[in-house]
Amino acid sequence: MNSIQKIAALILLSSIIVGCSSSPSEPEKTPTTPPLSQSDRYQEERYDIKNDVAPDQPMSVEHIEEAIPQYEAYSLGGNKNYTVRGQRYQIIKDPKGFKEKGQASWYGKKFHGHLTSNGEVYDMYSMSAAHKQLPLPSYVKVTNTDNGKSTVVRVNDRGPFHPGRIIDLSFAAATKLDVIKTGTANVEIEVITVEKPTSQVKKQALPQFQIQVASSQHKDRVETLAQDLGQKLSVASYVNSEDNIHRVILGPFDDYALTQKTLEQVKLLGYSSAFVRKN
User: Fold this and answer.
1) Which residues contact 129 (CB under 8 A, 6 or more apart)?
2) How far is residue 150's CA from residue 23's CA, in Å, rounded to a whole number?
3) Runs of H (alpha helix) within the chain
4) How far does CA 105 lie from the centroid of its chain?
């Protein structure tokens, strides 16, 4: 094939691609809705599930504690001003004292296992949330003003991009606030700011966290698992036995960010019911 034929073939291929991207099956957009950017289109097409749903057989979230506020440096990713559907969003530089009222929604199975805006793995059973402008990560107290229930979540993602909605809760957080039942709820959110510890603060004064991976009545299996995970993840591990129930425990950790990172690794290894508990 000579050069002219190659160029002609490329032009023909380009016209086919353009034709596919604007096929009649694509939902029509109203004149007031900006066309999807390449980034927006990627976000819509990257997930296996078209519409978000709850897990098929959700596990109980009663044992999952609310997020424990701790000082964390802001992430390298997810903290730049950005544009979605033609709307420009500016990250709040100083969120201390920030409060907001509006509607909360939730997100679950569609996004489970995918990366959040700051590069973490989204886990619908974690006490996390998404906000359009708060720096990542941030800790927020969320109060469902429809029923008075409240909890604390760790914001590590962006969204929701629907009018009137101010926060997207994880499946676990939404369940605790009874937002799952209604789909959305009226909420008030308040940022919880934790100052950076000074060098004079002793390590012993920092909060301690543990990860409970699994429990069983078979002590030998639990001991083998604890040893295996300790070696794979390079963390301390041990078995806690009580009332003939043997639990695999990792830690303790005095860094909440490291605890969450380790929890993500544990879940990627297949232990989806693992959770963080305070020592």
Assistant:
1) 140, 142, 153, 154, 155, 156, 157, 167, 168, 169, 170, 173
2) 46
3) 3-21, 38-45, 171-176, 179-182, 219-233, 256-268
4) 14
Residue 102: left if φ>0, alpha if ψ -120 to 50, beta else—which one? left
Give the number of C-alpha atoms closer than 13 A to the C-alpha of residue 127, restricted to the C-beta side: 24
pLDDT tens series, the chain, 279 aa: 544 444 444 444 333 333 333 333 333 333 344 444 444 443 444 434 345 556 666 667 888 889 999 888 888 789 999 999 899 999 998 999 999 999 999 998 788 888 899 888 888 889 999 999 999 999 999 999 999 999 999 999 999 999 999 999 999 999 999 999 899 999 999 999 998 877 655 555 667 889 999 999 999 999 999 999 999 999 999 999 988 899 999 999 888 778 888 998 999 999 988 888 877
Q: Is the dihedral of CA 180, 168, 57, 110 positive or negative?
A: positive
Q: Look at the pTM and tell me if it is higher than 0.85.
A: no
Distance CA 80, CA 266 (A): 29
Cα 83 to its chain centre, rounded Å, is 20
List of domains in the chain: 82-192 (2.40.40.10), 203-278 (3.30.70.1070)
Determine contact, residues 94/33, Cβ cutoff 8 Å: no
Provide DSSP, 153-184: EEEEE----STTEEEEEEHHHHHHTTHHHHS-
At 263, the amino acid letter reads L
